[in-house]
């Protein structure tokens, strides 16, 4: 390499892997780079170069083309395969100057091609250019990571209810459609429950909206606690109304689930002095269960669960009703004192 004066090197020192089987050329090039403050790794074969590349992840590779055994093209391809998603600048150094040689170098994964002997000014200009490209790529990667994080936060804000932390109506609709398709494909039962807090307006009027919000958060936690299987989902449907989506849950299992939820609510004893149903809050709910066929729709399931919810209210509240079973949870437990 010529010792022609160069205008300087990148401000930040680089770790540079120099690969050349010719000892004199490699040592001279390494000495020049070391003089400019760079950290230099040396390899006299493609195999050893690949090992150093994997071990140290250099900032730049200066790679000779002609070497015994595997050549530089092979080394470049292996280096690219060893850094999925990453990018390390590779500059080929060769005495070959044919167009096909340059094309083959770029095809193998190289970023530039210099003809030996390389002038010092040219080499350092290339180093600075590659360093700028690497910095630009790092900034793009950082911006991409920040964008992915922002999108994830935005998605969470758009799918999570701010008060309770449960899925919101939009997320429930998406989950219901996907679980419906899965249940239809696998011919498995799917249960949907809609429930709300009995006489919640009276609770808000008596206790105030702050306590009302606290009550809804406690109910949400109870629903979350009952979702023991990974596929079970609880959502805030709107206001004081909640939804439970229970894949692979048959009719009998749905009723058992509802009774367990009512026991948890009763045990929590969240006081509701103005309720004509009980001294504590209670839930009314509608259940629909089916093995979906081609005519089953998400909208139809929601309407049927909503209709069952109103039937439960008409029959006295503090119960879950299922049209498919023509029964409610009141028939399965002792009557509570009014």
Automatic annotation (TrEMBL):
<feature type="modified residue" description="4-aspartylphosphate">
    <location>
        <position position="64"/>
    </location>
</feature>
<dbReference type="InterPro" id="IPR050469">
    <property type="entry name" value="Diguanylate_Cyclase"/>
</dbReference>
<dbReference type="Pfam" id="PF00990">
    <property type="entry name" value="GGDEF"/>
</dbReference>
<dbReference type="GO" id="GO:1902201">
    <property type="term" value="P:negative regulation of bacterial-type flagellum-dependent cell motility"/>
</dbReference>
<dbReference type="GO" id="GO:0052621">
    <property type="term" value="F:diguanylate cyclase activity"/>
</dbReference>
<dbReference type="InterPro" id="IPR011006">
    <property type="entry name" value="CheY-like_superfamily"/>
</dbReference>
<dbReference type="InterPro" id="IPR000160">
    <property type="entry name" value="GGDEF_dom"/>
</dbReference>
<dbReference type="InterPro" id="IPR043128">
    <property type="entry name" value="Rev_trsase/Diguanyl_cyclase"/>
</dbReference>
<feature type="domain" description="Response regulatory">
    <location>
        <begin position="15"/>
        <end position="131"/>
    </location>
</feature>
<dbReference type="GO" id="GO:0000160">
    <property type="term" value="P:phosphorelay signal transduction system"/>
</dbReference>
<dbReference type="Pfam" id="PF00072">
    <property type="entry name" value="Response_reg"/>
</dbReference>
<dbReference type="InterPro" id="IPR029787">
    <property type="entry name" value="Nucleotide_cyclase"/>
</dbReference>
<keyword id="KW-0597">Phosphoprotein</keyword>
<protein>
    <recommendedName>
        <fullName>diguanylate cyclase</fullName>
        <ecNumber>2.7.7.65</ecNumber>
    </recommendedName>
</protein>
<dbReference type="GO" id="GO:0005886">
    <property type="term" value="C:plasma membrane"/>
</dbReference>
<dbReference type="InterPro" id="IPR001789">
    <property type="entry name" value="Sig_transdc_resp-reg_receiver"/>
</dbReference>
<feature type="domain" description="GGDEF">
    <location>
        <begin position="188"/>
        <end position="325"/>
    </location>
</feature>
<dbReference type="GO" id="GO:0043709">
    <property type="term" value="P:cell adhesion involved in single-species biofilm formation"/>
</dbReference>
